[in-house]
Specification:
single chain; alpha+beta; Alpha-Beta Plaits; 28% helix
Amino acid sequence: MATVYFKIFGHVQGVGYRYFALRAADRLGVTGWVKNMGDGTVEVLGCGSHATLLSFKKELIRGPSFSQVTEIKRLEHEDEDTFDQFTVRY
């Protein structure tokens, strides 16, 4: 299992991006969270296998139909957090 942190840039707030990420995570079996940030980005912490997280990243790049992802940064996350599910944080 791996844990990764994604920071998504572009037009990603006000377009259903968090709930898109939630549905993608549930479908792929990723646990963790998604959160809108004050600077207009979205942060995602995902836990799963490396292959699953690669598929999840592809979904995050695609985003919902009204979004426009311009950049996604992926950083390895050293914390040993474990999550039972994927949630939207406010």
